Each structure stands twice: as C-alpha cells, then as structure tokens.
Amino acid sequence: MQNHPSYISTRGDAPSLNFADTTMTGLARDGGLYVPESWPQFSTEELREMRSLSYVELAVRVMSPFTASSLDEDELRILCTAAYGRFSHDAVTPLVQLDGQNWLMELFHGPTLAFKDVALQLLGELFGHFLQKNPKKLTIVGATSGDTGSAAIDGVAGRDNVEIFMLHPHGRISEVQRRQMTTILAPNVHNIAIEGSFDDAQAMVKRIFNDGDVTGTLNISAVNSINWARLLAQIVYYFYAALRLGGPDRKVAFSVPTGNFGDVFAGYAAAQMGLPIERLIVATNINDILYRALKNGDYSTSTVTPTDAPSMDIQVSSNFERLLFDLEGRDGATTSARMKWFEKMNKMVLSSDMRSKAALFQPARTDANEMQSTMLWAYEHYGQIIDPHTAIALHAARHSGIESGVPLVTLATAHPAKFRDAVEKSTGIRPSLPKRIGNLFDREERLTILPNEYEAVRDFILKTADQG
Ligand SMILES: *Cc1c(COP(=O)(O)O)cnc(C)c1O
User: Would the pTM of this model clear 0.70, i.e. be above it?
Assistant: First the structure.
C-alpha cells in the first residue's frame, strides 16, 4: 500500500489529476476516462489484518490509497460514516448463503434500493466536501437506464452549489424507478425524459461534455459510472465478501449482472490490488455485446431490446474502455485510436491475445426464460425473492462450471420490489416496498419530456441551469 496514484486518461491526451479533480470532472477532456496511474497493492498479510474491519473501516482502508492526494483518512472516514449510515442493514452489504457454494451479496439496502447507492451516497458526500472547500457551482448531467438516476438524485438533492439534470428513456424504466426520481421535488433536481433509448440519452450526455457552448458556461460533472469515484466505492464490497469467505487464503468468484461494465470493473480493480479472485462472471441478458466481445472478440453494437432487467439493456458499455486501456498495455494513443474507430464504425475486434489477457472474466448470457426460472428456483429452494438482474447473474453462476470448492458470490444488485411486476410474473409473489420508501405512489411527480434531439436537450439545460 505504498503508492498514492494520480489519475490519467485512457486516451492519453488530458492532464493527469488528483482525486478531487478527477471526482469533480468525470469525463477527461480528450474524451477518455480517468484511471489510476497504477494500482495500489495490498500484501497477503495486510489483507488478513483487514478481515475484522467493519464495512466503514474497510472502506477507509481500501479507498485511502486512492484518495490520499485530496483527503486525509479522518476526512474519508467522516464521509464514509455519513454515506453508509444511510443503509438499512448494519453490515451495509450483507451476504446470504444459498447452498454449499452459492451466496448472494445484497447490495440494495441503500435509500433507493439498488447497488448504485453504495457509490452514489459516497459521491454525494464527496461533492459536498470538495465544494465546501472550494466553493463553486456544479452542474451534474447524467443519463440513466433506471437505477443510477434515483441514486444520484438521492445523493445530491437539496445540497448547496450542486444542480442535477438526469436524462432517462421515456417509458422504458419501471414505474418505481421513475417515481423514485420524479417525486424528488428539490429545486436543484431536473428530470428529463427523452423520447429515445438509454443509449441515445447516454450519447447526448457524452456530447454535452464535449460541447464548448455548455462547458464554456457551466461547470459540468458526471455521476455515471464513467466517474472514477463511483467505481472506487464499489471496489470495497469485493474485499468485504472475499475476506468473509476465506480470502485471502482462499480464492472467491463473483457473478455480476452487467450493463455499463462499471460494477464488474470494480471487481477487476480489486484483483489488480492483490485480492485473490478466481473468476468474474460477466452476466449479460440478451443485450449481449460484452458476452460476444469476451467470448469471440466481436464488440459490435446492435439495437437494444427492452427486457425485464432494464439496467442491463445497454449496447455500448462505457467502462469497457477502462479494460481496453489495460489490455492495450495502458497505451493511451492506441486506446484512443481504437475508441475513435469504434465510435465511427460501431464495432471493433478484440484479438485473441487481448482476450487471453482478460481471462479473469468469464462471459455469460441469460435469456428471459432462464431469468424467470431462476427467480422461481431461488424462491422454491431457498425462499429468496430476487430481482431480474440478480436472477440473470445467479443463472450464470449456477451454470459457470466453477469448481465447487470456490465460493461463488452473486451480486444482488436491486431490491425485488423495484421490479415487482417482473418478480410477480415469475414467482407469483408481489414483493412490497420497504417501509422506508413510504408513499411513493401517492407523491407528486415532476419531469420534462423532450424529443430525441441533441439541441433540444442542450438548450433546455442551458436555459434552466442556475449559472451562479
Ligand atoms: C446499474 C445496474 C446494473 C449494471 O451495473 P453496471 O455497473 O452498469 O455494469 C445491474 N443491475 C442493477 C440493478 C443496476 O442498477
């Protein structure tokens, strides 16, 4: 745990930044994503000593090498205590055993019932801290396929000096997801429904970050998982689970329901830092670009098919660029050329050499029937009601062929009540919303519907944003 990295762009042509500036900036100026310039290392001995730590103390240990350029340990501890104090379970990310090999890690005990809270509660605290130290107005612009939006809004609603514009695909997210965003009426929150897909919304956000008319007027930042601080917060629970299931003296495998490749990349980061991980299952649904890429090198987009697991209905996985950067030997110029080609052609090929460097990842693809039967199986055998995203990863775990002596942790990324229509269809059980969500269906909603046109969205943001 010796080095305190600064952050460099995957496209090699943006200034390197400290942790605070990386967090506040989001996307790098050259269109790339920030990554640490090197991976901090933990020895086996250090890992063993970390087994007894509480979630918050473990978070401080795992994250402090990355944040040392901008926060001291006590400051980080205060922010982590506030963020994880809002979780309804003392263990923050508790493990539930299914059988001799399979475990669920419940990541949905935060305020908005999805794993995004683990990162976005902390990100809200980080924004608050850095803006207090260095007061200025910050405008967050993001796109959501459902869960990021509510978690991001919950993390910043009502905070000083921050305003948030959140784009979602109109009519393509669940009612619970929509209401969790649109019923937050704090004046610094603006929900925009785009008449298009999530990928359209995400492409618009990328364009906004590269639009001089916007960046010249507003100080904009990202909360999508392109923001490094989000991935950082997610690294912690891989350590948490592995250290409870015998690590570092036993390897543990994870199955991760994957969309933007952020969550599973955090697992990869944990492995780079010295945590013994046997395998990371990249579980996709039928929107399977990552499955094809890792299986036979075909990273090419096709149209998005809406499913009951909307947070995985993605074709372009932004964080995949972070992996490509490593597979290209951390060469920014090559990664940049590759990404520019991809942005033009909508496809690229991963060589077998690159795929063999990515052997920690095991791709899997789960269709709607398999997802439904897995929900039913978990309920009938273990009395566990799981959400569609979790079911996709659990199906992949059960069919992974990973040796039975290796504990296999499926990340349970959403509370089943968030997707209760789909859960009811498969299990006959309609999960109820936890009490802390309260009267979601009775509250007033506020949102703006805009056409799927870049100019309409940009003009709305410029017109509405408080320019301070
Ligand atoms: C966001 C999300 C995912 C996908 O995570 P990525 O980091 O985008 O790969 C999976 N499941 C749920 C419930 C989510 O909200």
Answer: yes
